[in-house]
Design goal:
610 residues, alpha+beta, eight-stranded antiparallel beta sheet, five-stranded antiparallel beta sheet
Length: 610
C-alpha cells in the first residue's frame, strides 16, 4: 500500500484540470489528421514489424487469404429478434473484424499485394453492411432499416479500425474503395457525432451513462475523427465533446477506484479509455495526457489492487472467471504514467501502434510485477484482496460486501474467491453468463447465474438475496496483522426475511501453516427458520469424511471442513442452470441444517489439498 500512496503523492504535481485540458487541446492538437502509426520512426517500425504480435498476425492473415466470408444480412441479423441469440450474428461479424485486423497488419509489415486485395474485398463488404450496429443494440431495427444512424460498441470500434486502414493505405487502395470507405466512415461515425457536438442532434443515450459503453464508444469515435476529418475546427470540436462526455465514464468508478462492473469491464472500459488517452497524447505532440487528471488516479491503480495471485482476478459482477488484466492496457498505463519507457507491441491492429510510438526505441524494457501488498482494500467498493506474500501460504483470496444495485450487478453480497498456489481459483464466485436477450432486461435475476443461488452466499429461511441499493453489507469489524486478515459483515439487508434479527458473515484469512480461509455465517431468528449456506465448486467435489469435502479444479485442490456447531446437516450438490462464460460448469454445494432453528452458526474452513 505504501507504494501506491507514494505514487499518488509524487503524481499530484502532474494533475491537470478540465479547463487546462481544453486549453492544451486547442494549443497542441495536430493541424492535420493524426492516425495510429503515422509518426513511427524507422527504428520503431522495424521493431514493430519484427515483434511476435505482427508475426502472429501474418500467419493468421495467410489463412484468411483463401477464406470465404458469408454475408450476415439479413438472416443472421434478424435472427436475434426471433431467438434472442446474440452469438450467431456476432460470430460471423467477428470473422470479418479479425480478418481485417490481421490482413492490415500483414500488409503493413510485408507490403504484399495479396493481403491488400483480400483486405479491399472485406472493406467493400463492410461498406455494404446495412449497419455496423449489433442487432442486440438495434432491437427496433431502426439502424438496419436506415431510419437512423446510431453509434454503438461495435460500430465505433469498426470505425476506428477502418479509418486507420484508410489513413495508412489510402495511396494503395483503389480510388473507388478509398472514396467509398471515406463516405461510409463519415455517414456512420463522423457526421452523427459532429451533429451532436454542435447541438443539432441529442447525445446518444450512452454519452451520459456512467459505464463502459461511454469509454469504448468515445475511444472508437476519437480514433475515427482524428484519422479522417480533414477540417481542424470540426476535429477540435468533436474531440472537445468526447473529452466532456468521457467524464461520465470516470464517474462510474467509486472514489477508491473500484470498478463495480467487474474486472473484465476495467479491461474493456478503462482499457479503451487508455487507448483514447494515448491517441490524444500522441495527436497533441505529447502535451495532453488524460492520465494526468484527478479523476483517473484511483481507477488507474485498480489493477495493482484487484489481482489476487498469479494474475487471477475475482469474477465479481459480469466477469469471465478466466479474465486477466490485459497486458496491453497495463503497458499503456505504465507508458502514459512514465512508469516505463518501453514496452513490446501488444494487441491487434490498430492498437499495436500505440505502445510502439509511446516507447523509446533505445530504452530497456522493464517487467511488470504484481502488487507486493499483503492486503488491498477498496473501502468504497467493500472488496478486500488477501495475498500470501513470502509467508509460504498457498492460498490467496478476494472477498466482497457491496450491494445489489452495482453496475453489471449480480446478487452477490458476501461473495468470495479462493486461489490455490497462484495457479487456479478452486471455489468462490463463478462469474458471468454467456449474454443473451434476457441478460440485460427485467428477467435478469431469474437467472441462477445472476441471482444469489449461483453464488457462495447464505440462504436464510429459504430466501435468495434481493436486488437494490438498500441491500448493502455493513462492515462490523476489520482486523489485520502480518499473519491474518479479518472482515466481519452484516448481510441482513441483502435479504427480505422479517424474522431474521442477525445475519453476519466473517472472513478470516490466515497465512500460517500453508494458509487457510474460514467463512463463518451466524444467523438469529425470532422464530425457527431453515438455514443453509453454499459453496460453489469450479470443478469436482467429493466427500472425504462426514463434514469434509475435497474440491478440485485445474489440478489444484482445496479441503473444505464444515462445522455447524453441533447441529445436524446435509450436504447437497446441484448444478447451476445457465451458460457461464469461459465454459465453466460449476456446482452449488448446499450445506443445509436438518431442522429449523432460531440460531445458526456454520463455518467452512478451506485449506490447501495435496
Amino acid at each position: 500500500m505504501k507504494k501506491a500512496v507514494l505514487f499518488l503523492l509524487s503524481a499530484a504535481v502532474l494533475l491537470v484540470s478540465a479547463a487546462d485540458q481544453t486549453a492544451l487541446l486547442k494549443e497542441s492538437l495536430s493541424k492535420t489528421p493524426w492516425f495510429a502509426g503515422k509518426n513511427l520512426t524507422e527504428r520503431q517500425k522495424k521493431e514493430l514489424i519484427a515483434s511476435p504480435t505482427v508475426k502472429t498476425a501474418i500467419a493468421r492473415a495467410d489463412q484468411y487469404l483463401t477464406q470465404s466470408f458469408p454475408f450476415p444480412f439479413p438472416d443472421l441479423y434478424l435472427d436475434f429478434g426471433k431467438t434472442g441469440n446474440r452469438t450467431r450474428f456476432q460470430t460471423v461479424a467477428d470473422q470479418y473484424t479479425r480478418a481485417v485486423v490481421m490482413l492490415s497488419a500483414a500488409y503493413y509489415a510485408t507490403g504484399e499485394k495479396a493481403y491488400l486485395r483480400k483486405l479491399e474485398e472485406l472493406l467493400l463488404k463492410f461498406c455494404n453492411f446495412p449497419t455496423w450496429v449489433l442487432p442486440a443494440h438495434d432491437k427496433k431495427l431502426l439502424n438496419y432499416s436506415g431510419k437512423t444512424v446510431d453509434i454503438d460498441l461495435a460500430s465505433s470500434l469498426t470505425g476506428w479500425r477502418l479509418a486507420t486502414v484508410l489513413a495508412l493505405f489510402r495511396r494503395d487502395l483503389s480510388p473507388e474503395t478509398a472514396v467509398r470507405l471515406e463516405r461510409e466512415l463519415n455517414r456512420r461515425i463522423v457526421d452523427p457525432f459532429y451533429q451532436i457536438s454542435i447541438g443539432k442532434r441529442a447525445p446518444f443515450w450512452w454519452m451520459k451513462r456512467k459505464m463502459n459503453w461511454n469509454a469504448v464508444c468515445l475511444a472508437g469515435i476519437t480514433g475515427t475523427v482524428l484519422a479522417v476529418e480533414p477540417d481542424y475546427g470540426k476535429r477540435l470540436r468533436m474531440l472537445e465533446t468526447a473529452l466532456e462526455y468521457s467524464r461520465y465514464f470516470l464517474d462510474s468508478f467509486l472514489p477508491d477506484g473500484y470498478c463495480s462492473e467487474g474486472a473484465a469491464y476495467w479491461n474493456y472500459g478503462f482499457g479503451h479509455y487508455l487507448n483514447m488517452a494515448a491517441m490524444i497524447y500522441l495527436a497533441t505532440d505529447r502535451r495532453l495526457n488524460l492520465l494526468e487528471q484527478p479523476a483517473t488516479r484511483a481507477p488507474a491503480m485498480y489493477p495493482d489492487k484487484i489481482v489476487i495471485a498469479g494474475g487471477w482476478l475475482p469474477a465479481f459482477a459480469d466477469c469471465n472467471y478466466k479474465t486477466r488484466i490485459a497486458p496491453q492496457y497495463l503497458d499503456l498505463h505504465d507508458l502514459l504514467l512514465k512508469q516505463a519507457e518501453k514496452r513490446s507491441p501488444l494487441g491487434w491492429f490498430p492498437e499495436l501502434f500505440l505502445p510502439a510510438e509511446l516507447s523509446r526505441a533505445d530504452a530497456p524494457e522493464t517487467p511488470r510485477r504484481e502488487s507486493p501488498d499483503l492486503v488491498s482494500v477498496f473501502p468504497d467498493g467493500a472488496v478486500a484482496v488477501m495475498r500470501p506474500g513470502s509467508s509460504g501460504s498457498r492460498l490467496a483470496a478476494a472477498v466482497k460486501g457491496g450491494h445489489n444495485d452495482e453496475l453489471h450487478n449480480h446478487n452477490d453480497v458476501g461473495s468470495y474467491t479462493i486461489v490455490v498456489d497462484g495457479a487456479a481459483p478452486v471455489t468462490g464466485d463463478p462469474g458471468a453468463e454467456v449474454y443473451n436477450a434476457w441478460t440485460f432486461g427485467p428477467k435478469r435475476y431469474e437467472s441462477q447465474v445472476m441471482n444469489s443461488f449461483g453464488h457462495p452466499v447464505p440462504r436464510p429461511a429459504g430466501q435468495l438475496q434481493v436486488p437494490g441499493k438498500d441491500t448493502a453489507a455493513l462492515l462490523l469489524e476489520e482486523k489485520m496483522d502480518r499473519d491474518s486478515f479479518l472482515w466481519r459483515l452484516d448481510l441482513r439487508k441483502a435479504y427480505r426475511v422479517s424474522s431474521m434479527t442477525r445475519l453476519e458473515r466473517s472472513f478470516l484469512y490466515s497465512r500460517k501453516n500453508g494458509g487457510s480461509v474460514t467463512v463463518t455465517d451466524t444467523a438469529e431468528f425470532s422464530k425457527p427458520e431453515s438455514f443453509e449456506t453454499a459453496l460453489v465448486a469450479f470443478g469436482g467435489c467429493r466427500q472425504l469424511s462426514p463434514g469434509v469435502l475435497e474440491l478440485e479444479f485445474s489440478g489444484k485442490k482445496l479441503i473444505a471442513s464444515i462445522d455447524t456447531d453441533g447441529e445436524p446437516f446435509t450436504v447437497e450438490t446441484a448444478g447451476i442452470q445457465g451458460r457461464y462464460q469461459g465454459e465453466l460448469k460449476p456446482q452449488r454445494i448446499a450445506v443445509r441444517l436438518n431442522r429449523a432453528v432460531r440460531k445458526a452458526k456454520v463455518a467452512v474452513t478451506f485449506t490447501p489439498g495435496k
